[in-house]
Structures are given as structure tokens and as C-alpha cells.
Amino acid sequence: MYDAPLRKTDVEANEIKISAKDVQVYYGENHAIKDVSVELQDKTVTAFIGPSGCGKSTFLRCLNRMNDTIDICRVEGLISLDGEDIYDKRVDPVQLRAKVGMVFQKPNPFPKSIYDNVAYGPRIHGLAKTKADLDEIVEKALRRGAIWNEVKDRLHAPGTGLSGGQQQRLCIARAVATEPEVLLMDEPCSALDPIATAQVEELIDELRTNYSVVIVTHSMQQAARVSQKTAFFHLGHLVEYGETSQIFTNPVDSRTESYITGRIG
Amino acid sequence: MTDATSQGAARPRTSLTAADKRTQRRNAAEKRFRLYGLAAIGAGMFFLVVLLSSIIGNGIGAFQQTFIEVPVYLDPAKLDKNGNRDPAEMAKVSTFGYNPLIQDSLYQLVQDKGIATEYEDGGDMKALISASAAAQLRDRVLANPDLVGETVEFEILAASRVDGYLKDRVTRDSITEDKNIDAGHLDLVDALLEDGTVHKSFNLAFITGSDASESRPEQAGLGVSMLGSLFMMLVVLFLALPIGVAASIYLEEFAPQNKFTDFIEVNISNLAAVPSIVFGILGLAAFIQFAHLPQSAPLVGGLTLTLMTLPTIVISTRASLKAVPPSIRDAALGVGASKMQSVFHHVLPLAMPGILTGTIIGLAQALGETAPLLLIGMVGYIATNYPDGIISGFMSPNSAMPAQIYEWAKRADPAYYERAWGGIIILLVFLLVMNVIAIVLRRKFERRW
């Protein structure tokens, strides 16, 4: 059924990066995430799959406290990054988000030049002392975002003038420029054509050597292609979490099987 | 397959080239609607043209004024009895000392030109000359005492009746009851008009000058009240823009959504609809009666208009902040920017064109506002003196453009009626310029995302 070869990477050796325990999320009265406990590993791509409205994006946004911007959203339970509770009162969400970067569903470059898009994060975090440092950071980030060759001659052209796929890779470059430890991606390819999708997927695989990547996707093929671990969400529950190869070939839960064979969702 | 065909057969076969009844009715309705639209726009344009042409037709005359060119002999025996050309001593000679000089010079001029007239001396001809001419000549002499003893070519302001005669406002029929001028004077004007001694020329004093008393419309200008308006607009700009933008950013980006902020929001919308005279009485109570700021001062006018402009600026700023896509905020927060950094680095620059447009439209509204100024004493004040500095520009009594126009429109002399229309033209030019600035700024700052 799935043409892409399933990766059988040994990931057990990687340590735990993010750990969630009994997480509940409410939007006002609506109980969106129910009792989710999961441990995400370092230097691993973890895919969240599940039908629309199952809470996978909501859960993703809890991991860098982007839900704080929604007034009616309430998070309970424990989410920790390297053993530290990220919802602790002493945690500044701004510092957290510098460590846990995010790429969004729709490419959203700032209406500034390509260079300024990438340089913005390093600038506000004071990562570069000199202009040369900053140039280097920008180049490195754009290379990691696999877009350097396409934009190196027009760094000062507006980022909004790029094609959709280029914009998304620019956003990835922008996210990695601040040297995060975890990269959250919320359906990063949903607005892209197959060629751009392939480029972004290749990129995600490369990013794995440095970061822990969490990707929400609607495409099960994509999950199978890029991830080592997969979590299946359904109606706010985390139904099953395990090795990607195991989830797609030998799911334990019947709901998982129904979803990946296309009977629900 | 068979079901589909049997259902299709229920609809009669029609040709595409001939429209059926239903389509015809629909097309007719559409055509009618377009005609209504065109008619509405046509009516709007028609009234605009009528309005503009009547304003320009009535007001353009104020930009032309009648002058009489007379060589005036500045007699040292009258102006400087001691002969030492000391301006302090010469200042003792009041305008009454200058009046006979001008009148006699005009009489002499008429004699020299050989124009037949029934009048026997200069005093009989003073109806031609503006009452302000003597003061103007005196100012010129005191500024330059060496002129005394010489004959100076002097452009005397003609009296408003003469000006009206040249502009067809005053006719020989209309002066039969008029004590100020006789038919003989008009004969004289006709004669002097032929050789160009009496002529109309561009009236800069109308734009730069100050207001004059009721009996001297020919001297009245809008300049001083323009300064009053300028100082008021400075107050409005430097208070309403920062306060309004800060309030909107807080309400839009930082404030929690609760009953209290809802209450504030509703009240701001309501304030925008409060009649401006209410703000006027508030300004009177708060700034003059309570804070004891000077009456009629542009500072008080500016503060009052700030109250009135704030809701406009807050509403337009919030609308333009709302229009910035949330994805930009997410992007900034996603790379670890703080809330304030995301607002000031990304949201505010994108909202800037809307904020500027809203501010300028608010300012333009404040510039044309008259009612609040009634209550703080800026209407009715005769703005005859220029403020002598920045501070007195804010603190000393003054008028404002719309208040000055209203004041002129109230006065009895028809010459003031023309000046009121002329003032409207100047006010409209200011509003037009401000709107153009708003459009240019919007274009300049507009960015796509």
C-alpha cells in the first residue's frame, strides 16, 4: 500500500527530549485533548497523524506554548523539555520558543527581505555580535533550509516574492536560524506542490541529525516517509504511539488500522 | 444512467441563442439595477459640481482686491515736526495725522489728471479709501523714517463699496440709500479705472492677513486664524496620535477579552458618534472652568478637539491592526519574539498605512470643526494680532479657520459674505492637501504579505 520504504532506524538509543503526562487541553468548555501522555525522543522525527479536528495541531502548539495567545485555551497536566516543566510559572514562553521553533501550515514570511526574515530571530536573541557573524548565521540557516542556492543572489529581495515552496523553506531556515533544539512543524507541506513537498521532506530528514522534529501531517505517506516515530490521535485521545514501521504495518489498536486503511477519518 | 435521462426530460429543450422568459426577467432586473447605480452616481456628481462651482463662483472674488495707486507726499511738517527722524517721536502722530495726507494726495491726483469732479477737497473723497489705509501708510513710514519728505507711490486699499462696485456687488441703484458713498464717487472710480489708477489685483492679505473690524471688510484676512488652526492641529497631532495608537495597541493586542474591555470598546464606538458640541462643553468645563486655562486659546481648542478625534483614531487604528494577518504574529512568536517585539517589529509597520490615513482623516475632521470652538470662545474673537511666539501661539486668544468663516458669515456687510466663501475655498484646499497626503502615505507604506 505504501510505496515509500519504511525506515527501520534504531531510535531507542536516543534520549527523551519532550515528555508529556496526562495533558488535558480545554477551549472554553470544549475538552480538546484528553489524557495525552507521550515521550518524544531527541534527534528523531515524530509524526502526528489523525483525522481533522483530532487535536494533533492543538497538542503541537502546547509544546511551545503557542496556545498561550488564545485567551480561552487552558492546559493541564505536565509537559517537560529536558526534564523542566514548560508550564512552570517561572518559565518565560519567549525563552521557550527560542528553544522550540515552529514552522506553520501556511508559509508566513515577514514582508521584509529574505535576509531580514532569517536574521530577525538571531537579532532579537543577540546571537550575532557583528555583521559578519550575522551574515554567516543567515547563510548557514539558508543552506540548512536548502534554499541558499536559489536566493543567494537576491538576499535583499522581499521574502514574499518567492514561490510557495521557497517561502516555506525560507520559513524553515528562519526557524533554524535561532538554533532551536526542537522544531515543530504544523502541516508544513499542505500548501505545497509535490516537488516542493519532496524538497521539504528531504530537508526534514537532514534536520533530524541536529534537532528533534515533530511534524503534524494529513498525509500518511508523508508520515511514513519522513518519521521514525508516529503518534495517532483520534477525537482528542492519543490512540497509539510507536515505531512508524510498526504503526503502518502492524497497528495494535483497531482504530489506527481503520484510519491508515482509510475507513475512518 | 436511465434515471438521469428520465429526470432530464422533465426540463423542456430550449435553444441557447434565444433567452427564455426567466433569463430575460433576470437580465432586465440586472440592467435596472445598473441604471439605478449610474443615476445615483450621476446625482452625486451633479451636486458636487453645483457645490464646487457655487463655492468657487462666490468665493473667488475674495482673492482679488481693489487698490488705488496714489503718489503720497509725506509732509515733514506734519509727520516729523522736530525733523530728527526719530521713530519714537514720529509714533506720536496717529493715523489721524496720515488721513489728510492720503486724501489730499488723491485729490491732487484727480486734479492733475484733469478729471472733472464736483468734490472740492480730499475730505470729500475719503469714501473711496479704506479706513485702514492710514494705518498701513503709518506702519510703512515708521518702519522706514527716511521716507519722510519724499513722495511715495502707495497702493491704497480701496473702500469695500468701491471694491464691491468693481465686482458688481454694488451698483448705482443699490447706493441710493447708502450714506457711505455717492454716485459722484462712482463716476470718479469709473474715470480712475480707465487709466489704471484704480485696479484689481491679487489679494495676498486675504490669505496672510488678520481679521478686521465689522466696518472694514476690505482689510480682513484669514492668516491669523490659520495660525490658530495650525497650533490647534499641532496639539491634536501630538496628543491624539500617541494616546490613540497606544490605547488601540493595548486594547487590540494585549488586553484580555472580558466584560471590562467590552465595555470600553462599546464606549469608544459611542464616543465617535457623540455630537461635537458635547465635546465643546466638556472642554469648557474641564479645561477653562476647572483647569483655568486661558479662554479662546488654541491650546484649549486643541485639547478639546483631541477629545473629539481620539475615538476616530482609536477605531481606525484598531481596524488596521485587526487587518494584519495573525500568521505574521504567529511567525514572530514562533521565532521567539516577545509579544511586544511582534507588535512593534511586525504588526505595527504593517498597520501603519491604515493608522496614518485614520489620523489624517481625524485631523481633517478636527480642522473643519466649528461647534466645540463656539463654547471655548474661539468663535467671535477678532483675531487681529499675530501671536508673537510659539508659546503665545498656543496660549494667547485666537480664532480658527472655520470659526473665522462662521464669524464672517454672521456679519452684516455683503463684502464679508464674499470673504466667508473665500475662506471656505482655503479650508477646502487644506482638506484636499491633507487627503492627498493621506493617500500618498498609504501608497508609500503599503506592503503586501
SS element count, helices of chain B: 19
Strand order of the largest sheet of chain A: 6-7-8-3-9-10
CATH-defined fold name of chain A: Rossmann fold
Most extensive contact: A-B, 27 and 22 residues
What spatial form of chain B do the alpha-carbon principal axes imply? extended
In CATH, the architecture of the largest domain in chain B is Orthogonal Bundle
Domain unit count of chain A: 1
Number of spatially distinct domains of chain B: 2
- The chain-level mean pLDDT of chain A equals 88
Distance between the termini of chain B: 49 Å
The secondary-structure element order of chain B is: HHEHHHHEHHEHHHHHHHHHHH
**Low-pLDDT sequence parts of chain A:** none
Please identify the top-level CATH class of the largest domain in chain B: Mainly Alpha
What does the oligomeric state look like here? Answer: heterodimer
Give the number of DSSP strands of chain A. 10
Taking all residues together, what is the mean pLDDT of chain B?
Answer: 88
CATH fold-level topology of the largest domain in chain B: MetI-like fold
Measured distance between first and last alpha carbons of chain A? 18 Å
Q: Which parts of chain B are unreliable, with pLDDT below 50 for 5 consecutive residues or more?
A: 1-5
